[in-house]
Fold:
Amino acid sequence: MSDLTIHGAFNTRTSRVIWMALELGLDFEHNNFHYSTGGTQTPEFLAINPNGTLPAIQDGDLCLFESLAINLYLANKHGGELAPKDAAELGLAMQWSFWAATEVETAALDALKHRLLLPEDERDEAAVAAAAEKLAKPLAVLDGALADREYLVGDRFTVADLNTAAVAGWAKFARLDLSAWPNLTAWLDRCLGRPLFKKARGG
Ligand SMILES: N[C@@H](CCC(=O)N[C@@H](CS)C(=O)NCC(=O)O)C(=O)O
Structure:
C-alpha cells in the first residue's frame, strides 16, 4: 500500500495533483469522490482538510490542501526533471504558481462556468466577456515570458509549467479567443498535449 493518498474526483482541481503524481511516476491511492456527494464535509475528511474542499493529500502523517502547493511539495520531495534544481528555479516555480492562483484562476473559472459548467440557462456571455477582459493583461504577461523559451523555468517541463498550465488551461477549455498570444497558445498545447494530462482527467 502506498504512503500517498490523493483525495478528490478527476473533474475537480484534484486532476492537477494526479497529473503531477503521474508525471513523477508515483505510486498512490486515489480516493475518487466528488464534493457533491457531501464527502468533504464529514468529520473524517475535515480532519484532513478543514476547508472541506478538494483536493487534499495524505502522505504518511502529513495532510496537505491547496492543489498548487501540493504539487510544489511533491516535486520538491521526489526531485527529478520536474522539480526546481536550485533556489532560483524554486523561486520561479513559486512565482508562477502563486501568480496563476491570484492573477488568472478566478477569471478563468468564471469563463469556464459561463461557457461549460453552469446549466445552459444560467450561462451568461456578458460574464465570459468580462472574464476575458480581466485575463487580457495576465495572459499577455505569460505570452511575453514565453517569447524566447519553450517552458517557464529552465529548458524543460517543470512543476511551474504544470501548475500554470493547469490553471491557464481553463481559458482554453472555456474557448476564449487566445489568438493574440501565440507563444502562450503553443506552450499550452505543449503542456496540455502531454499524455499524462489526459490520463489525470480520467482519460
Ligand atoms: N484553492 C484550492 C481550491 C479548492 C476548491 O475550491 N476545490 C473545489 C473543487 S475544484 C471544491 O472542493 N469545491 C467544493 C466547495 O467549495 O464546497 C485548491 O487549489 O486546492
Summary: The beta strands are 4-7, 29-31, 56-59, 62-65. The mean pLDDT is 97. The helical segments are 14-24, 43-48, 67-78, 87-117, 125-145, 159-173, 182-192, 195-200. DSSP finds eight helices and four strands in the chain.
